Every structure is written in structure tokens, then in C-alpha cells.
Amino acid sequence: MLAGLVVLWPGGAPAHERTGVGFDRQTQQATVTKVVSVSCSSVNASGGTPTGDTSTAEGSSAEQQANGTCKKATIRVDTGDDKGRTFTEIVQPDQSRQLYQGEKVVVAYEPSAPKDLQYSVTDVNRRVPMTVLALIFAVAVVVVGRLRGVMALVALAISFMILNFFILPAILQGSNPLLVAVVGASAIMLIALYLCHGLSARTSVAVLGTLISLMLIGFLGSWFIDWAALTGNTDDNTGLIHGLYPSIDMSGLLLAGIIIGSLGVLDDVTVTQTSAVWELHEANPAMGWRGLYRAGIRIGRDHIASVVNTLVLAYAGAALPLLLLFSIAQSSVGAVANSELVAEEIVRTLVGSIGLVASVPVTTALAALVVAADRPDPAAASVPAPEAAPAGAAGVGAAPQPRGGKGRRRKH
């Protein structure tokens, strides 16, 4: 892992000329200082009805814009060279995002446009609610987890640093996304597991089980991405990335996402299985590795059922708008599954789930083999206990009696 970090370390993301498309544009913070209601026709925000038929979506929208009431918002730029500059923007009545006085927004800046059109509102500034939510999360983790909760937050911060300063820039510089993902995921895993659970044989077994499962996910993911001819270039964002950096292997980027996405759940499964085997050994130190494995795998079956369902529902929830579009179009299940957008999610879900399922027997077997070596010494166990002294013998050589209240009975 260290060798991979040294060889693949990017030294920063490569520079490029901004395209002004999507996320690749200059943005500034701004505030809505004034909002007034105006007639849409007075600000020329409507135009003619495209179809002449108000029963269609286009005709209904145009009719609403022509006869409805629009909002004229005055926005003040709060950051950048043009700090204090104001501009106006017309908000049509059918727009999903309306503007309100005092609202914090994000504006895009296009220097090549005419001066009156250089700025436009692109999004709402959500820094305050997101910060408050993050603080609530951190407090909850620390209150419940205490020291381990603090260590978990530190590991989370380090994980984001590895993602931002190594994985993303290395991929942008043209390094193999699979190698970058494996090295970066290994670094995240080692730091997170050892930092949260300590440097011990138990943690090392979880690390080894996670590494074996990640290799399986990488192999299966590479095989099925090639077999299913998945390009990884399926939406506007991936198209923009490919346009800016044509050297990036988009299918490799898809595989890297599968590996990194599966890592978090894998950590949970391997740590839980290892802890279960260790606790079984504590309860019965004489149990051999076969007995420990059988008992641990029974626990793992319940874990498999819940974790796989969790992973599938997580991916389904992320793709819910896409699935809703297919439902509106009344497409067949076969047609939906065959489209590349959905096929990517299917491959991502099933490959990750196979790795999770495989991690249970692999980690359980490793933990059972390691912990079974710490069995009680048979020679020590066979040493007979000293014979008890006869009643009333209190002289020299009498066996010492235990002190304290446990095990003592009052003679009646």
C-alpha cells in the first residue's frame, strides 16, 4: 500500500480551462436582497405557446408563463472581485426553485457573456444546514461511542483526505483507476480499522478478510464490466469528465466506484464476524476451530441476509428517479435491465453483494484458525488440585482457605 501511494501519488489535480458547463464553472456566494411580483408578459418571460394545446406539458407551461405572475429578484454578490455587485433574475411561476428575500444562493459567473448576463443563480447555499447536521452527527457518535467514536471521526476525516488528495487527483492525472482504487481503499481500510479497533490479532484478521473480499470484488467487477460492455459514460457528469480528460478510463472509473462503495459495508461485516468468533472462544476456550467456524457461520448467515438487503436498497434508493422514469414509460423489466444506466447499478449491486457474502466464510475461517491457537494448555488443565486438609487440621501444611464471602457457607 505504501509503495502504491508513493508511485501513484499525483501531487495535485491537473489544471484545465473552465468550460462553463455543469459543475465546471466559476461560482460565487450571493444573497437575495429583494423580491417583487411582476407580470410575466411585462418582463417578456413567456413567449408564444409552443404547441397551441394547453393539454400538453409544453403548452400548459407556456400558457402559465404568459398569463401568470413572475418574481423579479435582486441578488447581491457577496464574494469575489465583484463583491457588492447586484443583478436581477426573473423567476417563472412553474420553476421548481423559487427565490425569497434574504435567502443565501450560489451564482455562476461567465466572464465572456454580456455584462447584464454574466451572473445567474444556480443553486441554494446549504452550508448552514449541512454544517448543523454534521455537528449533530459528530456529537451523537462521540456521546454514544465515546473514545471509539472520536477515533471513528478521525478515521472518517482521514478517509476524506485520502479521497480528495490521492484517489481523485490520481485518476484525473490518468493513472489506472483500478490500481488507484485498490491502493486508496487499502489505505482507508488499514487506517480506519486499526485506528478504531486497535492494533491486535483480531483487527488484523478483519483486515485480511477485507483485503481478500476486495480482490474478489475487483476481479468480478472487471470481468462483468467487460463482458456487459459497460462504458461508464452514461450521464451528463461522466460525459463532461470524459470531455475534459479523454485519457481517463471511464469503465475503470466505474470499477473503482464499485470497490470504494463496497469497502464501508465490508469493514462492518468482517469486524463483526471476527468479534463474534473471538467472543465464542472466550465463552468456550476449549472449542476447536471447526466448532468456532460452524458457530460463527451461523451468526454470519443472519448478517448476510441483512447486509445484502441493505446494499440493494441503498443502490435502488440512489437510482429511484431513474427507475421512476422507466415506470412512467411502462417499459418491460427486460428492457429496463438491459439499458446501460440500470445495468451499471445491477452490476454494482450484485458484484458488491457477492464480495460481502464471500467475506463471511473467509473472515470466519481466518478468525477461527487464529483464535483456536489460543487454547488452554492440556498439561496445565490435567494437574490435579491439591487435596483438602482434614477437618480441624489447622497446623503447618494445611491448605490455605479462600478468603472473602464467595463460596463460604455458614455452619448451622
Automatic annotation (TrEMBL):
<feature type="transmembrane region" description="Helical">
    <location>
        <begin position="205"/>
        <end position="225"/>
    </location>
</feature>
<feature type="transmembrane region" description="Helical">
    <location>
        <begin position="245"/>
        <end position="266"/>
    </location>
</feature>
<feature type="transmembrane region" description="Helical">
    <location>
        <begin position="128"/>
        <end position="145"/>
    </location>
</feature>
<keyword id="KW-1133">Transmembrane helix</keyword>
<feature type="transmembrane region" description="Helical">
    <location>
        <begin position="152"/>
        <end position="172"/>
    </location>
</feature>
<dbReference type="InterPro" id="IPR012507">
    <property type="entry name" value="YibE_F"/>
</dbReference>
<feature type="transmembrane region" description="Helical">
    <location>
        <begin position="178"/>
        <end position="196"/>
    </location>
</feature>
<protein>
    <submittedName>
        <fullName>YibE/F family protein</fullName>
    </submittedName>
</protein>
<feature type="compositionally biased region" description="Low complexity">
    <location>
        <begin position="378"/>
        <end position="403"/>
    </location>
</feature>
<feature type="compositionally biased region" description="Polar residues">
    <location>
        <begin position="44"/>
        <end position="68"/>
    </location>
</feature>
<keyword id="KW-0812">Transmembrane</keyword>
<feature type="transmembrane region" description="Helical">
    <location>
        <begin position="304"/>
        <end position="329"/>
    </location>
</feature>
<keyword id="KW-0472">Membrane</keyword>
<dbReference type="Pfam" id="PF07907">
    <property type="entry name" value="YibE_F"/>
</dbReference>
<feature type="region of interest" description="Disordered">
    <location>
        <begin position="378"/>
        <end position="412"/>
    </location>
</feature>
<feature type="region of interest" description="Disordered">
    <location>
        <begin position="42"/>
        <end position="70"/>
    </location>
</feature>
<feature type="transmembrane region" description="Helical">
    <location>
        <begin position="349"/>
        <end position="372"/>
    </location>
</feature>
